[in-house]
Design goal:
By secondary structure, this protein is an alpha+beta fold. It has 2 domains: 281 residues, 3-Layer(aba) Sandwich (Aminopeptidase), CATH 3.40.630; 108 residues, Alpha-Beta Plaits (2-Layer Sandwich), CATH 3.30.70.360. The chain is 31% helix and 24% strand. It has 10 helices and 19 strands. The strands form 5 sheets. Strands 1-2-6-3-7-17 form a 6-stranded mixed sheet, with helices on both faces. Strands 4-5-19-18 form a 4-stranded antiparallel sheet. The N terminus is likely disordered. Bound molecules: zinc ion. The site of zinc ion (ZN) has 6 residues, from helix 4. One of its GO terms (molecular function) is hydrolase activity.
């Protein structure tokens, strides 16, 4: 077989951007992805790519009911590797500050605008076009391994229910590696540009601290115990925790996110609630995070009663653990080769600053997972856009990578 070239697998740029524009025009904030899921299903079905709905139900906390859309190309050799292509269909809730229709899909100066244009309908369009191109590779008998496409719901929501459900239903069990086409460099730990591969991500825990003091007349605060003051001291102390460090992922971090307390009348506040974000690197477990918080409480020797509670989740397995994918993994090599072929340059290597479905794949499912995605600006905000040429480039890189990795 001859060495792959960009032209051999190239997607049609106009069709790719047209697909992206159509999807941006279908609003799909998390928990409201139904119309877009139907669109993705129909698009695949029109091309005889055998899509299936995969139901996602979470009756306990969110009462969410929705559907992932999945499709599989079956390679000729059951022993060849299976590659997962994962993209989320949902966006954040539409932001109010847009000066135009947030779902316009307007294209100007090589930028396509809309809520979710970059995060990550662009990445979704890229994997859909790549999957279509790979179906031809399969039809030519040149695909040995399987390619599994998963367009998932609720990545932006509180629990990543779509990808969580893939894992819990065993759909990722036979996969050997994963590509997630989330926006790349803009959310990287370091200052890099596309083309880039992000080979890991920090993990994240969210916990609540409830502080119970003792009410008293506000003119005599020494007779009470102010939960507000104690929670404030605790918030400051938590930022002084010595966090872990990792050679690839950098440092962990602690950020108190919210402090609720107060008194409408002249009383010493008796209760406070402090919500804390902790980003962790490999080696920092849930036990360590809890122990650190308990130590901060102990250090201050507070008179208030303090309780630390991790966020309730629909399933104990739902957690965003940190992961790193080995630079020497064959998927990384295939991505580097494909990037050279498509973009004519080596990709930058980096690590993701925050968390997402890729943590579920990289940590929980244990899959070597790489993020490669088109970049833009104003992600999650008004004026979000994606660079259209990068959408096409990522589609080509993913196609060629899959053809090689599974070929
Ligand atoms: Zn995203």
């Amino acid at each position: 077989m001859t060495e792959a070239t960009a032209s051999e697998f190239a997607v049609d740029p106009e069709e790719t951007i047209d697909l992206l524009q159509r999807m941006v025009r279908i609003p799909s904030p998390y928990f409201e992805e139904h119309d877009l899921a139907e669109f993705v299903y129909e698009w695949l079905d029109d091309r005889d790519l055998d899509p299936e709905y995969h139901h996602v139900s979470e009756p306990e906390i969110t009462e969410y009911e929705g559907d992932n859309v999945i499709a599989r190309l079956e390679g000729s050799d059951p022993d060849a590797p299976t590659l997962l292509l994962n993209a989320h269909m949902d966006t954040v809730k539409l932001v109010e500050d847009w000066e135009e229709d947030p779902c316009s899909g307007r294209i100007e100066d090589g930028k396509l605008y809309g809520q979710g244009a970059c995060d990550m309908k662009a990445g979704l369009a890229a994997v859909m076009k790549a999957f279509e191109a790979l179906a031809e590779v399969e039809a030519n008998g040149e695909l040995r391994g399987d390619v599994l496409l998963t367009a998932v719901v609720d990545e932006e929501g509180p629990y990543g229910l779509g990808t969580d459900r893939l894992i819990r239903d065993g759909i990722t069990d036979d996969c050997d590696a994963a590509i997630v086409t989330e926006p790349g460099p803009i959310l990287a730990q370091e200052d890099i540009d596309n083309p880039a591969l992000l080979l890991g991500a920090r993990g994240r825990y969210l916990y609540d601290i409830t502080v119970k003091g003792k009410a008293a007349h506000g003119s005599q605060p020494h007779k009470g115990v102010s939960a507000l003051v104690d929670a404030g001291r605790l918030a400051e102390r938590l930022t002084e925790i010595e966090v872990g460090s990792h050679e690839k992922l950098g440092d962990g971090s602690v950020c108190p996110l919210m402090l609720n307390s107060g008194s409408q009348t002249l009383s010493v506040p008796e209760r406070a609630r402090l919500m804390v974000d902790r980003h962790v690197v490999i080696g920092e477990s849930e036990e360590r995070v809890r122990a650190d918080a308990e130590q901060a409480v102990a250090d201050l020797d507070l008179d208030s009663e303090v309780e630390i509670r991790f966020r309730e989740a629909p399933d104990p397995g739902i957690k965003y653990g940190p992961y790193v994918t080995d630079e020497d993994h064959p998927l990384v090599g295939a991505l580097q080769d494909a990037t050279r072929s498509v973009a004519g340059t080596d990709p930058a290597l980096g690590y993701f600053a925050s968390v997402g479905d890729f943590n579920y794949l990289g940590d929980r499912a244990g899959l070597p997972t790489v993020i490669v995605g088109p970049d833009g600006e104003n992600i999650h905000g008004a004026g979000e856009f994606v660079y259209t040429d990068e959408v096409v480039e990522v589609a080509d890189i993913v196609t060629e990578t899959a053809a090689k990795f599974c070929g």
